[in-house]
């Protein structure tokens, strides 16, 4: 998922000017005053970029597993020309960079060159994906989105894995430290983004995969009230109510949210494994453990509820319509399941496919096998089932539920030739895989001419939605809201953008029958 750009370093000057005093060249476009001090970024031909700006104190020592704390003001002008450290994470099979740093609560701001406090632009705050265990804000180059969309883009690091979503009976806020970080970044935006040329009254929170999962959490969080005004969720949905009371269960049967008690029980097990067995001193003991020891433990990397950020189960909040009723743009790729099945079921045999269907679906297994024959590629068949059931069928129910309370615009990204974010093991064909739309918004993998045109259209839709709460723009195919029954197709080539026949492409009537709907 690495979509980094390398930037040269600017020269830091006036390093010993008092923090409250303006530097001699404060009128320069690359110098901006925040509420904790001046920062100097870089000015490119069509945008400005400020990297590695701290939005909360380093959560080390006694601040490990504490709510984010204020940044100490600095003297002089701080160089904002390099990203901050990635939050602590191990590497993975694709070789994404590992990190042992807890000093990681930084954000990056990319601004159209013409944006000023007198001409503020809409703000888009990006929460990266990575299963809440991997990734960083600076993996995403926001320059194209900023310049073509004429928006200010903020990308955020937040605590991950055992540092961001940990719990223990001796801790307050169990299961939500990463979410608290994200809200601290949103509060930083409210206090500071106007100085960069952004409009704090027009903030869109958007993310992909685990980042979109986080967006859903903030939609359900009372402490996020007023921090954002629109939401975009890519490759996730906010509720699994489709499966409630049905005869079906998802292939990848994982909870979206877990109670604080589950985090606390998991944390107590982790403490015991690390030799912190005395309940009275366990938290102090755990705070003394090196990062490497904690990263070696299996995290419960799911947002927890029963804390200040999520006092109630978000599933209940969404079902009762008690979420923040901001306009929502949401969608999936056509083949979401290919990435996950390649990882979970590599080398799946025909026998294993049939046995797996019986285990998951019971009496419905034969009908599903007939609808999704393996044709010698059982892993690909499971991917199709997962794409249709776990994502499209469940996502449709979530979209409809949300649309009863607020405007919702849904899309299906259908470019089956899109470059995948990762090569898939096991010979699985990626098609329009999970995350494959990212290169159309953030420069990364090379795109064809038609794909780049699609990317331009997507950026226009996304940025128009950020500006107005409605993605429609002059010259683009009309995108109607979910309440009209419309889902928008995003694919390259003539006629590629228009109506996405979700029901036919994902066999939704078949799944409705099996579910008893």
From TrEMBL:
Protein name per its UniProtKB record: Carboxylic ester hydrolase
A family per Pfam: COesterase
UniProt-recorded Gene Ontology molecular function terms: hydrolase activity
Lineage of producing organism: Bacteria, Bacillati, Actinomycetota, Actinomycetes, Streptosporangiales
Residues of the signal peptide: 1-26
Keywords of the record: Hydrolase, Signal
Origin species: Nonomuraea solani
PROSITE patterns, per database record: CARBOXYLESTERASE_B_1
Family: Belongs to the type-B carboxylesterase/lipase family.
EC nos: 3.1.1.-
Keyword Signal on entry: yes
């Amino acid at each position: 998922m690495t979509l980094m750009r390398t930037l040269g370093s600017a020269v830091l000057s006036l390093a010993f000017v008092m923090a409250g005093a303006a530097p001699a060249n404060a009128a320069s476009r690359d110098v901006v005053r925040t509420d904790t001090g001046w920062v100097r970024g870089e000015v490119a031909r069509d945008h400005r970029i400020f990297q590695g700006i701290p939005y909360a104190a380093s959560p080390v020592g006694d601040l490990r597993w504490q709510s984010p704390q204020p940044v100490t003001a600095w003297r002089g002008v701080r160089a904002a020309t390099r990203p901050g450290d990635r939050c602590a994470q191990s590497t993975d099979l694709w070789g994404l960079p590992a990190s042992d740093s807890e000093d990681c609560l930084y954000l990056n701001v990319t601004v159209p060159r013409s944006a000023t406090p007198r001409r503020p632009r809409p703000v888009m705050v990006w929460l990266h994906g990575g299963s809440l265990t991997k990734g960083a804000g600076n993996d995403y180059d926001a320059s194209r989105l900023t310049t073509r969309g004429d928006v200010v883009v903020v990308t955020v690091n937040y605590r991950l894995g055992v540092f961001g979503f940990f719990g223990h009976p001796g801790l307050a806020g169990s299961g939500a430290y990463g979410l608290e970080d994200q809200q601290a970044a949103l509060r930083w935006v409210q206090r500071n983004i106007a100085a960069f040329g952004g409009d704090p009254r027009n903030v869109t929170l958007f993310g992909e995969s685990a980042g979109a999962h986080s967006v859903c959490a903030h939609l359900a969080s009372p402490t996020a009230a007023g921090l954002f005004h629109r939401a975009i969720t890519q490759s996730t949905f906010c509720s699994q109510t489709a499966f409630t009371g049905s005869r079906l269960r998802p292939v990848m049967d994982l909870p979206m949210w877990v109670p604080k008690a589950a985090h606390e029980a998991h944390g107590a097990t982790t403490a015991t494994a690390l030799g912190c067995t005395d309940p009275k001193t366990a938290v102090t003991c755990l705070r003394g453990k090196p990062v490497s020891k904690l990263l070696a433990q299996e995290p419960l990397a799911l947002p927890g509820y029963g804390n200040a950020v999520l006092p109630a189960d978000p599933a209940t909040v969404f079902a009762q319509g008690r979420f923040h009723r901001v306009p929502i743009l949401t969608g999936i790729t056509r083949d979401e399941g290919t990435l996950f099945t390649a990882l979970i079921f590599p080398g799946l045999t025909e026998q294993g496919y049939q046995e797996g269907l019986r285990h998951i679906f019971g009496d419905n297994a034969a009908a599903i096998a007939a609808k999704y024959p393996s044709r010698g590629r059982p892993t690909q068949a499971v991917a199709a089932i997962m794409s249709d059931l776990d994502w499209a069928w469940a996502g449709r129910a979530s979209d409809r539920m949300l649309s009863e309370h607020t405007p919702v615009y849904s899309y299906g990204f259908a470019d089956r030739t899109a470059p995948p974010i990762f090569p898939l093991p096991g010979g699985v064909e990626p098609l329009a895989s999970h995350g494959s739309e990212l290169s159309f918004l953030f420069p990364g993998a090379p795109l064809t001419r038609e794909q780049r045109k699609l990317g331009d259209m997507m950026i226009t839709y996304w940025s128009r939605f950020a500006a107005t709460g409605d993605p429609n723009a002059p010259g683009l195919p009309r995108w109607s809201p979910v309440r009209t029954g419309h889902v928008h197709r995003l694919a390259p080539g003539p006629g590629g953008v228009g109506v996405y026949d979700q029901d036919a492409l994902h066999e939704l009537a078949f799944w409705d029958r099996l579910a008893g709907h």
